[in-house]
Specification:
By secondary structure, this protein is α/β, with parallel strands linked by helices. It is built from eight helices and eight strands. The structure holds zinc ion.
Length: 221
Amino acid sequence: MNKFLIAPSIIASDFTTLGDEIVACESAGADWIHVDVMDGHFVPTITVGPLFVEACRRATKLPLDAHLMVSNPDQHLEVFAKAGANRLTVHVETCPNLIQTIERIKSLGCRAGVTLNPSTPASALDAVLPLVDLVLVMSVNPGYSGQKFMPEMIGKVEEIRGGLDAIHSQAFLQVDGGMSVETVPLMYNAGANVFVVGNFAFKHPMGVGEAIRLLRGCIPA
Ligand code: ZN
């Protein structure tokens, strides 16, 4: 088991060669494939949906980690589970009955994650920390790839790490947004252990394999 996991955000890849991009991630030692689902309502952009997850499913056996940036995730959990997602992460801002939503995700056979926008305080997750398998801290405002990392989110990761450790939770603590060889060590030291990487991986001049190798090496073994 690696000390930390790397989850390439596949929407930053070239869709004309999606299968090859996923295989390249897998060969380079990526741990999960992260799928950023955006609905044009909760966030301004529209990206991909369940058909895309299904295509990813056919290309890899790696866990598919779907991050649902949608206004009404409860209506869509089942279709993403059936499409082959292994992990479903929902935004606290979109779930009026968050505990029920988490239970529903588990009943569909998926791992349940929760996330929150940069402006939402960590305390919004207090009631559900014992129930989840993953907490995702957004280190940019969700909606576009290629945004600049928000250093203010280091403190939020530290706070959530403290909360998880206090209840002896083994849940993953994931960070999404602006991850690179400069920012991954900052978030790792703050207590995160899963890193979503978009442009750093897929726009790297040396290719995705080298980008993932550099990320692995940016934290001393
Ligand atoms: Zn994401």
